[in-house]
Each structure stands twice: as structure tokens, then as C-alpha cells.
Amino acid sequence: MTTFGEQWQSLGKAGLLGVGFPSRFGGQGGGPAEVWRTARRVGESAFDLSVGLSWISHQIAARFLLGQYGNEEQKAAWLPRLATGQAVAAIAVDEAETEPNLWNLHATYRPAGDNTLVLEGTKLKVINASVAELLLFFAVARPEEELGGLQAFLVHRDTPGVSLREVEGRSYCPSSPQSNVVLTDCKIPLASALGTPEQCVEMLGRIGEQHDVLVLQVICGYLSRLVDELRPLLRRSDRDRLTSLLLRGRMQALNSLTRAVAAGWEDREEKQTHLASAQLAARELIQLTRNDLGDLPDHPAVLAAQRDLELISLAWPRTKNRFLQAVRDEERDEDGSPSPA
């Protein structure tokens, strides 16, 4: 079985880690459309969804956060190595044991003199943390306030005060290199701050938005390859034929929906309700596909796929809330008054 490290190296050699990165920093260039198309290729090439999740976190951290909000010195220091896979990036945000709340952070930073800051706090289930060299760590100056003095920081994994703890009770993607990240009296240079506090609010929004779009593309590619690989294993009974046809039909619909989601987010000309409803429909299809896999012959790949697709269920509340908010915003725009909550 190919290891995570071997798969990651193969993505780097294929140029799939630097898509969207500026060419002057060793990337392949390209806009959001190229990144989203690459997400499907990553899903098709991955042996499990763990690699796809790691690619998503790496891309969001490097391309959509550091690449957009970093200064030239920060980008020159990190992007060339992130583009080739020599270094891996992770985003350290979530602190809650239950549904993530990006707007309620308790990790803190404080001035320490000599142009340095001290970071304190714990981040849970950070994808890539156990293999990452770069951590994008979000903290606040005033934890008693919502987003009080929010700031993002570029933290090297080997900085004194950074430690990792094993994640317990994981229900999906057990091979994913996740860890809890603990920063204790972690001193970093003031120059490690990424963007302004106002930009950091934008970053939090982009993390959820880009993740939701990219994970659909990765899963679509992953399921397409899985269905193709399992076809020869099916017995030639009427039930198997029906299941095979059903899966192929679901994949055609899923391909159309994920393309619509990606295209809509790229040009933003579609109404947000159209995009959100397409996203909800895609997630419903993935859940149905997961159930259909139960009718296939016992096979390790099928069992792994059913287990790993639990991540869709974990992200469901956020997707539903985003759809409801889009509906409220559209109603407000149409009648000129706030819609009822």
C-alpha cells in the first residue's frame, strides 16, 4: 500500500501542489478555476480521502491565504518550497470539540518586547499538523470579545513552545496526518503576522468557503475512480447491474453539480442561493452514493470510502447555515428590508 508520504511526493512531482502559485515562486500559476479542476485530479489520484484533505488544507493555506495576504518577504520565504511539496502547510483555527466556530477563538497573543510576540492556545484536529513545517495560527488579543484583535501568524513547526498531541476518537480518514496543536509561551517575531486584522476576518470566511468547494471536487474525483475500479468486481446479477447503473447516474449528476459550484464561485455572477442549493444537492448525492456502496460486494476500498465520506456529514450544518443565510440575504435585497431570522 502506498504511504501518505509517497502519495504526497507524487503530487509534487506531477505539479499538483503548486497550481495557482505565482510562477516567480515556483508555481504553475492559474486562477481559482485551475485550482478547482486540480482538486478533482487529486481526488482521482488519491488512494484515500486523507491525501485529498491534506491537499485542500495545503492549498488554502499557501495559495488563498499566504499567497493573497502575505507580503513579498513572507511569500518568497515559503511559497517556493510549498509549491514543490518540500514543505507542507497547515491551518490551525478550530478550538471546539463540537461543530467548529471560526468566530469564537480563545488562543491569544501578546507583545513581549524586542519586536516579538507570545502565542498561547490549543487548536484541535489540525489537518497536516503532524507533517507540516508551516502553521497558520489564528489568535486574538482580547479573548473576552468576539474576534477581539484577531490576527493570523506564520509559525514554524520547530519554534520552541510548539507541541503536538494525538487526536483521539477519529471517525474518518484515520490515515490523515492530523494532530492537536498546542502553543505554550511560544515566542515569534512580530514580522510573522500575516495580513491585517481586517484581512484576517476575510481569511476566516475564505477558509470555510474554499474548503467547501474544494472538498466537493476532491470527493467527486475520488468516487469516480472508485466506481470505475469496482465495476469489474460486480457479479453479473440484475441487482449488480442496477447498482452499477445507479452509481454511474449519480456520478453524472454529481459531476454537473460540482462544476456548477466551482464555476459560480469563480465568477460570482450567480446568485448565492443558486450556488448554495447546488452545493447542498451535491452533498445529498454524495450521501446517497455512500449508501449505495453498501450494496456492492465487500471490498476494502468500499469500506474505506463509506468510512471516509463521514466528513460530509460533519460539514453538513455549516453548508445548511450558509444556504439559509444566502436565502435571507436575497430576500433582504429584493424587498429592501431585513428578513426574519
Main sheet? 4 strands, mixed
Strand-residue proportion? 15-25%
Helical segment count: 9
The count of strands amounts to: 8
Report mean pLDDT, rounded to a whole number.
82
Helix-strand sequence? HHHHEEEEEEEEHHHHH
Quaternary structure:
single chain
Helix proportion range: 40-55%
The structural domain count equals 3
Enumerate the strands of the largest sheet in spatial order, edge to edge or round the barrel. 1-4-5-8
SSE-based structural type: alpha+beta
CATH class of the largest domain: Mainly Alpha
Low-confidence blocks of residues: none
The coarse silhouette is globular
N→C terminal distance: 50 Å
Rg of Cα set: 21 Å
CATH architecture of the largest domain, by name, is: Up-down Bundle
CATH topology of the largest domain: Butyryl-CoA Dehydrogenase, subunit A, domain 3
Task: Give a quick precis of the structure.
The chain has 341 residues and is α+β, with helices and mostly antiparallel strands.
